[in-house]
Design goal:
This protein is of the alpha/beta class. The chain contains eight helices and 31 strands. Helix 6 runs parallel beside helix 7.
C-alpha cells in the first residue's frame, strides 16, 4: 500500500500522506538490481542509437531539437524560440550529454542507451546517482522537472494553485495528523475566519484523515492540481469543541513570502525585530528590502529570522538578505563559492565565465518589479537568531552558512534543517525545465559539509552544530506571537543567554484536541521551492 502524488503535470516529489512513505520520483525503463546497478535497458538494444557507452557528443548538438518545437517569444530570453523539429532520441541525447557535462556526480550515473526510453522524464529520472549517505538517505533526493511555463509562474510571480494556506503534517502515517501552518497572505482574503494557524484537519471529501486507506482522496483534496476544483473539509478550529464543514475551491494563489514584520522590546529593554520569511522567490526581494528598511528605522538591535518553513529558492536573494543582516562586515567577503564537478575547476560550465565567488550583494539584483542596482539597507548586526524546522533548506541554509563564514554568530532555535548544500541553474529544453544538481556551495571558510543539516544546540563542537536549542513547533500560537514557543525561546536567549524553560508541552483548551505544542512538523511544498537556485 504505497502512494505518491504527481502534482499538476510534472514528475516531482512531495512529502505527502501515505500508508508507507515513498522517497524518490519517477522510474526508469532499465533494469536495476538491488545494488543499483543497471543491466540491459528494457525496450532498447544497446547500440541501436549509435550509442557507445562512455562516449558523449556535446549537449549543444541536441539542444532545441524537439518533438514539439515551440514558436513565438521565449520569456526567459526575450527573443524568439530557436527550436526545430526533432525526435525523442534528440531530447534524450541532450539529457544524457547535459548530465555528463554538468551533473555534480556525473561519474556515478549509469550510462544507458537513450533509445531505450520513450519518455524523457523517465530517462531523466535515471540520470543521477543512486548512492546513499552514511545516514541512509538518498545522496541525491533533489532531482526533478517542471513544465517551463509552470516554473516561471511559480518562481517569478509566486503563483501556484491552492486554497491560500499551507498544511503542516504532524504525522504522515497512521495515526495521521495535519493542521494549518500559515496563510499564504496576511490578509487571508476570501477565507473563513476559522481558517488559521492551528486549525486541525479531520476529513477530506468524507475520508477520515487519521487512519483511512484512501490516500489518493486525501492528497487530491489537500493539494489540488487545478484551479476550480472543489473539496469538502471537516476542520476543528483552535479552541473549538465542535468541528465545522466547509467546501473550498482551489484557485490561483499569489503567495506573500515575507510576513509579520515587527519590532518588540524585551524585558531587558532590548529592541528586537522579527520577520517570517517563507520562500526565496522573485517577489521576496522587494518585500525583504521594505522589511529591513522598516526594522532599521525602528532601531532594532537583534533580529529573529523565522525560516522554519522556508525551503529555499534564489541564492542571490539569500545573499542579499545576509548582507542586509550583517552590513559593513560583509564588505569584500565571500557569501558562497560554488564548486562544480571535477571537469570544471575554474570555469562555470553554465555561464562559461571564470568561476568566482558569490559576494554578499549590497545592491538589488532586479527580481520581479525591483530595479537592479539599488543600494540595500542593512542592520549591521553581528548576531542573528534563526527559527528553523526540517523544511528549512538550501538557500535558507546558505544564509546560515554564509554568515558563519564571516564570523557572524548564528543562534539556531527549532529543529535540525534539511541538509542541502547543493544547487543548480534551471535548464529549459523543449518546454520542460530540468533541475539537476550541478554544484555544492561552501562559505568563506571553505565549509559546506552539512548534508545532515544544521543542528541547534549540538552536543559537540562541529561546524554544523550551532548554539541554541532543539524545540518543537507550537501551533497554539500565531507566528510572530511573543508567546509562540520558538520566538519566546529566542527572546529569552537575547535577555539571558539561554532558551530558558519554555512550556513546550502546552495543551490546547479543547479536550477533543491532542497536544499541538512541542511537536515536530513538516510543511510539504512544491520541490521547486526547496532548492538553491542560480540565475544566469
Amino acid at each position: 500500500m504505497m502512494s505518491t502524488i504527481v502534482h499538476s503535470l510534472a514528475l516531482r516529489c512531495l512529502v505527502i500522506f501515505c500508508a508507507i512513505c515513498v522517497v524518490g520520483c519517477g522510474g526508469g525503463s532499465g533494469g536495476r538490481d538491488s545494488a543499483g546497478n543497471v543491466d540491459i535497458p528494457i525496450g532498447g538494444v544497446p547500440g541501436s542509437s549509435n550509442w557507445v557507452k562512455g562516449q558523449f557528443l556535446p549537449a549543444s548538438d541536441f539542444e532545441g531539437k524537439c518533438v514539439s518545437p515551440r514558436s513565438g517569444i521565449d520569456p526567459t530570453t526575450g527573443g524568439s524560440y530557436t527550436e526545430v523539429q526533432g525526435t525523442r532520441l534528440d531530447e534524450n541525447n541532450w539529457l544524457r550529454s547535459m548530465s555528463n557535462e554538468l551533473y555534480l556526480w556525473y561519474n556515478e550515473i549509469a550510462d544507458q542507451d537513450p533509445a531505450g526510453f520513450d519518455d524523457s522524464l523517465e530517462y531523466f529520472a535515471e540520470l543521477k546517482t543512486f548512492a546513499l549517505t552514511a545516514s541512509g538517505q538518498e545522496k541525491d533526493r533533489f532531482h526533478f522537472t517542471l513544465p517551463t511555463e509552470e516554473w516561471l509562474d511559480l518562481t517569478e510571480s509566486g503563483i501556484s494553485v491552492g486554497y491560500g494556506f499551507q498544511w503542516a503534517l504532524l504525522s504522515a502515517v497512521p495515526p495521521r495528523r495535519a493542521v494549518i501552518a500559515y496563510l499564504d497572505t496576511e490578509s487571508a482574503e476570501g477565507l473563513p475566519d476559522y481558517i488559521m494557524r492551528g486549525t486541525e484537519l479531520l476529513s477530506v471529501d468524507g475520508v477520515n484523515v487519521v487512519n483511512s486507506d484512501d490516500i489518493d482522496t486525501l492528497n487530491r483534496g489537500m493539494w489540488p492540481a487545478s484551479a476550480g476544483e472543489q473539496h469538502v473539509f471537516r476542520l476543528l478550529p483552535p479552541g473549538a469543541t465542535d468541528p465545522v464543514t466547509v467546501t473550498l475551491t482551489a484557485k490561483v494563489v499569489t503567495s506573500d513570502p515575507v510576513q509579520s514584520v515587527k519590532s518588540i522590546q524585551t524585558d531587558s529593554g532590548r529592541k528586537v525585530g522579527y520577520m517570517l520569511f517563507n520562500d526565496h522567490i522573485a517577489t521576496a526581494e522587494g518585500e525583504l528590502i521594505r522589511a529591513v528598511s522598516d526594522l532599521r528605522g525602528e532601531g532594532v538591535e537583534d533580529l529573529v529570522l523565522d525560516l522554519r518553513y522556508n525551503g529555499g529558492g534564489y541564492l542571490d536573494i539569500a545573499s542579499e538578505l545576509a548582507y542586509m543582516v550583517a552590513g559593513d562586515s560583509t564588505s569584500g567577503r565571500t557569501f558562497e563559492l560554488s564548486r562544480f564537478n571535477d571537469q570544471h575547476p575554474n570555469i562555470n560550465p553554465v555561464t562559461n565565465r571564470q568561476l568566482l565567488p558569490t559576494p554578499f550583494h549590497n545592491t538589488s539584483r532586479g527580481f520581479g518589479a525591483v530595479q537592479s542596482g539599488m543600494t540595500l539597507p542593512s542592520l549591521n548586526l553581528q548576531r542573528l537568531f534563526v527559527l528553523t524546522g526540517e523544511g528549512t533548506c538550501s538557500a535558507s541554509e546558505a544564509i546560515i552558512n554564509g554568515l558563519r563564514g564571516i564570523d557572524v554568530e548564528v543562534v539556531q532555535i527549532g529543529d535540525t534543517t534539511c541538509g542541502k548544500p547543493y544547487g543548480f541553474y534551471p535548464l529549459d529544453n523543449c518546454g520542460t525545465t530540468y533541475f539537476t544538481i550541478q554544484f555544492s556551495g561552501v562559505n568563506a571558510k571553505g565549509f559546506g559539509d552539512y548534508s545532515d543539516g544544521f543542528v541547534p544546540g549540538g552536543s559537540h563542537q562541529a561546524e554544523a552544530h550551532l548554539p541554541g536549542c532543539q524545540l518543537g513547533d507550537d501551533f497554539t500560537h500565531f507566528l510572530g506571537d511573543t508567546n509562540e514557543a520558538r520566538f519566546a525561546a529566542a527572546l529569552n536567549y537575547i535577555d539571558t543567554g539561554s532558551c530558558g524553560d519554555i512550556p513546550v508541552n502546552a495543551f490546547s483548551p479543547s479536550p477533543a484536541r491532542e497536544r499541538l505544542s512541542g511537536v515536530y512538523a513538516r510543511v510539504p511544498k512544491d520541490i521547486a521551492r526547496s532548492n538553491r537556485i542560480m540565475v544566469r
